[in-house]
Specification:
The protein is of the alpha/beta class and 362 residues long. It has 13 helices and 12 strands. The protein has helices at residues 2-23, 49-65, 78-90, 103-115, 140-158, 175-193, 210-223, 236-248, 264-272, 283-298, 333-338, 344-347, 352-358; strands at 36-41, 68-73, 95-98, 119-123, 134-138, 164-169, 198-204, 230-233, 278-280, 307-311, 316-323, 326-328. Strands 2-1-3-4-5-11-10 form a 7-stranded mixed beta sheet, sandwiched between helices. Helix 3 (78-90) packs parallel to helix 4 (103-115). The chain binds beta-D-glucopyranose. Beta-D-glucopyranose binds at residues 46-47, 49, 124-125, 170, 174, 176, 208, 235, 260-261.
Length: 362
């Protein structure tokens, strides 16, 4: 199953290369405008990934394909998101790739692009009721399951009896947050039901805002009289906010916290024992697959995908590439660095140098 998904991704890339090889440069066809890809990223504060990873890998992929591109960031502003899209369409993009801020805005933008004959891709976040031709993401239910399993393992290591588990979920406007929750609740709910775990506070964080997440967690801690034994936290930005609050209360390292995105700071928290785990999503692969699809679409070609994403709002099956992620604990921090996703020097500074050495990060 896993390799099947990756194989499809590779096939997509190979097919694009093959066409270029045998038919000359398809971009020299005078009947068709040269590919120009527009990408709109959501913000730069909810996660470091968008600017640190997605932009970098998308740029590299477009450059390697020799196509023109324009990557912009809406900085969490929906009006700006729409304006950027309109400008890109006016400036003649042949394909538009978006990571929406919510489905409503995403839908408006995709519809406008479609009306103007611009090819469309939902990148990472699906637009419910939207018209994207493809969806390129990770299996987010599986990511959530890894987070749930990671927390279970860390709580077992601590030996806490009947731990109180708090859940700090992602944005209610992001379908990925809902998928993650269904993944980790599938792991946690049976334990609540069996009374092995006690269900603690469970709240979503609007816009994945890290500061708001810290405030919400502080309230959770107050409300429970400090009785929280583990925090299922939906991403690394929120995990960092939770760890700050725990540190202020001298609870860091005692209360396991999960995350996702494998950013440099999370890897440091993991090495220090303040974060239980994160999930590494190989964004380079995601960017390469999406870029290859965007280029193919811009050239008027279609690609087969093995998977579909069922959009319940639009009642539509969207052809999808859903990649596989990897859980990261102290023992596997080194894998993220070996993969080139995070620079060793961004992690192994100051007091982390010794922790890196002790955990085989070279
Ligand atoms: C992405 C995560 C990211 C979060 C906040 C989600 O849709 O899948 O990787 O941490 O948004 O930006």
């Amino acid at each position: 199953m896993r390799s099947g998904i990756l194989a499809i991704a590779t096939v997509g890339l190979l097919a694009a290369g093959g066409l270029t090889g045998c038919g000359g440069d398809p971009d020299d066809d005078p009947a068709r405008p040269r590919p120009k890809i527009g990408v709109i990223l959501p913000d730069s504060a909810s996660s470091n990934r968008w600017e640190a990873a997605d932009r970098k890998y998308l740029e590299a992929a477009f450059t390697a394909a020799g196509v023109e591109y324009d990557i912009q960031n809406a900085q969490n502003d929906k009006a700006r998101f729409v304006t950027i899209a309109e400008q890109m369409i006016t400036n003649g993009v042949t394909a538009l790739m978006i990571t929406n801020l919510d489905s409503g805005t995403g839908r408006a933008v995709l519809d406008k692009a479609t009306q103007r004959g611009v090819a469309t891709i939902d990148y990472d976040r699906p637009t419910l009721g939207g018209s994207a031709q493809y969806y390129v993401s990770f299996d987010n239910v599986a990511v959530g399951r890894l987070q749930g399993e990671g927390l279970v393992r860390c709580l077992a290591e601590k030996g806490t009896r009947k731990p109180v588990v708090a859940e700090l979920n992602g944005a209610p406007t992001d379908n990925n947050a809902a998928e993650l929750k269904s993944g980790y609740d599938a792991v946690l709910q049976p334990r609540y039901d069996a009374r092995d775990y006690v269900k603690g506070p469970d709240q979503s964080v609007p816009e994945w805002n890290n500061t708001t997440g810290g405030t919400i967690f502080e309230q959770m801690l107050t409300q429970t009289g400090g009785r929280i034994d583990g925090v299922l936290t939906a991403n690394d930005g929120l995990a960092n906010a939770v760890i700050s609050v725990l540190t202020k209360n001298k609870l860091n390292g005692k209360v396991p916290v999960t995350g996702q995105d494998a950013d440099a700071q999370a890897l440091q928290h993991i090495l220090a024992g303040d974060q239980c785990m994160t999930v590494y999503k190989p964004i380079r692969k995601q960017a390469e697959v999406a870029a290859a699809l965007a280029v193919a679409l811009a050239r008027g070609e279609r690609r087969q995908t093995e998977h579909t994403f069922h959009d319940t709002t639009g009642n539509r099956d969207v052809p999808a590439v859903l990649l596989t992620a990897q859980p990261i604990t102290r023992e596997t921090v080194k894998d993220v660095i070996a993969d080139g996703f995070v620079e060793r020097d961004a992690v192994c500074t100051g007091r982390y140098a010794a922790l890196c050495a002790a955990n085989g990060v070279s």
